């Protein structure tokens, strides 16, 4: 997308505003499938927690994607978007047996990540096809909050508990059709990924009726110019060769599954915000925008860096700014960042705003959530309206007049 297109959308739909480029999502999907074209049975399940707008789900469904979900509400959204139940994968953590049973009744593939639930579910539904999430005890990921495959992680069944796991399977006769792992996000070293894959291959040898192996995702995307990223093409060459060899050893052609979220939608997203005030202090020039971490929490939560452009003055002389939000506490998007000269009323564009941005937004400070627009075939389509005051009140119930106040 070009700056002029984004400026036009900001004028048309107002700010703050999320914009997603359908063409970029398509190109990322094609890049991943091409990298693993040597695998006969490949399946991509989009990790919808990254961006769960129904229009985005429909777009990916048309590309051939399945869904990776983590809650029954995400399952229901996937069904609403038109996915068949057998195209939806349910990988929860710490949910109740009742929620798992409710999802299983919908015909969705269940992925269980702890021994207690596996034993209970297996005893009640021995014929239900189940996938098992293994914790390979591999530390990977760009931040401790998104590293989920290490020994202290709450996710998955420890690879060291395989004897116990196998005993539960034998005692319940539960039907294990898949093995799954996910080590973390922002993985740079593909050798770490390949090492974890070997652990998954070894675990898979304990189960004779497998239909697929799910390697999760966590691929690193670039967040700034010349930033490093996961070499998907090299990973594709190496893992495809090893996966095909394992299928030969196993005696059956299995399906290789990935569940990318950020990889598919991060670079497709733009977040547009208007500058309310430029404030000079004794040491800093602040650019205060009409948004805050209630709309884009990643910089405050993860310390992540989003490239910021002044699309109203892209060729202006660069100055140092700290870009901050309007939330009534520390609310910093960038500190001392070189940005073309900013004036009040300018539109700033945050790049890589497609993943874990709107989906983690809130109404903190009783602020409205922004609108979302999908840019497809040269046109902007509103796929979520700006919230209104009625949205804030929708589920609130005032005290009856008969109760009174203290």
Annotation keywords:
406 residues; alpha/beta; TIM Barrel; Lyase, Ornithine Decarboxylase, Chain A, domain 1; eight-stranded parallel beta barrel; 12 helices
Verbal overview:
Keywords: Amino-acid biosynthesis, Decarboxylase, Lyase, Lysine biosynthesis, Pyridoxal phosphate. Its EC number is 4.1.1.20. It is a single chain. This protein has 2 domains: about 20-265, Alpha-Beta Barrel (TIM Barrel); about 270-385, Beta Barrel (Lyase, Ornithine Decarboxylase, Chain A, domain 1), CATH 2.40.37. Helix content is about 30%, strand content about 25%. The chain is built from 12 helices and 18 strands. It has helices spanning about 5-15, 20-35, 55-65, 70-80, 95-105, 115-125, 160-170, 190-205, 230-250, 260-265, 300, 390-395; strands at about 15-20, 40-45, 65-70, 90, 110, 130-135, 155-160, 175-180, 210-215, 255-260, 270-280, 285-290, 310, 320-325, 330-340, 345-350, 370-375, 380-385. Strands 1, 11, 12, 13, 14, 15, 16, 17 and 18 form a 9-stranded mixed sheet that branches. An 8-stranded parallel β-barrel has the order 2-3-4-5-6-8-9-10, surrounded by 5 helices.
């Amino acid at each position: 997308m070009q700056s002029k297109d984004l400026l036009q959308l900001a004028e048309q739909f107002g700010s703050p505003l999320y914009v997603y480029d359908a063409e970029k999502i398509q190109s990322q999907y094609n890049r991943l499938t091409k990298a693993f074209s040597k695998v006969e049975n490949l399946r991509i399940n989009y990790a919808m927690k990254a961006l769960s707008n129904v229009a985005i789900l429909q777009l990916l469904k048309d590309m051939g994607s399945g869904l990776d979900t983590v809650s029954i509400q995400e399952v229901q959204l996937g069904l609403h978007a038109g996915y068949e139940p057998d195209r939806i994968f349910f990988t929860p953590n710490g949910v109740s047996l009742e929620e798992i049973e409710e999802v299983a009744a919908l015909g969705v593939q269940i992925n269980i990540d702890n021994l207690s639930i596996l034993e209970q579910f297996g005893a009640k539904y021995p014929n239900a096809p189940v996938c098992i999430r293994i914790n390979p005890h591999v530390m990977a990921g760009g931040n401790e909050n998104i590293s989920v495959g290490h020994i202290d992680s709450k996710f998955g069944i420890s690879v060291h508990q395989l004897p116990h796991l196998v005993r539960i399977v034998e005692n319940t006769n539960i039907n294990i059709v898949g093995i799954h792992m996910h080590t973390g996000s922002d993985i740079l070293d593909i050798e770490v990924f390949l090492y974890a894959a070997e652990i998954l291959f070894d675990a898979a040898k304990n189960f004779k009726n497998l239909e697929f192996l799910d390697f999760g995702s966590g691929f690193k995307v670039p967040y700034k110019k010349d930033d490093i990223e996961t070499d998907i093409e090299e990973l594709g060459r190496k893992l495809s060769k090893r996966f095909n060899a394992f299928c030969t050893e196993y005696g059956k052609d299995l399906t290789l599954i990935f569940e990318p979220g950020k990889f598919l939608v991060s670079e497709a997203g733009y977040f547009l915000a208007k500058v309310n005030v430029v404030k000079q202090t004794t040491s800093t020039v602040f650019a205060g925008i009409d948004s805050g971490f209630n709309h884009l929490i990643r910089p405050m939560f993860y310390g992540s860096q989003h490239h910021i452009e002044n699309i109203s003055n892209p060729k202006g002389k660069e100055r140092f700014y700290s870009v901050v939000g309007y939330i009534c506490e520390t609310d910093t998007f960038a500190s001392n960042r070189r940005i073309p000269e900013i004036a009040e009323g300018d539109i700033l564009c945050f790049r890589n705003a497609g993943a874990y941005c709107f989906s983690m937004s809130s109404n903190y400070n009783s602020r409205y959530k922004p609108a979302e627009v999908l840019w497809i075939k040269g046109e902007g389509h509103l796929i979520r309206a700006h919230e209104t005051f009625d949205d804030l009140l929708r589920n609130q119930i005032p005290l009856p007049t008969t109760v009174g106040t203290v």
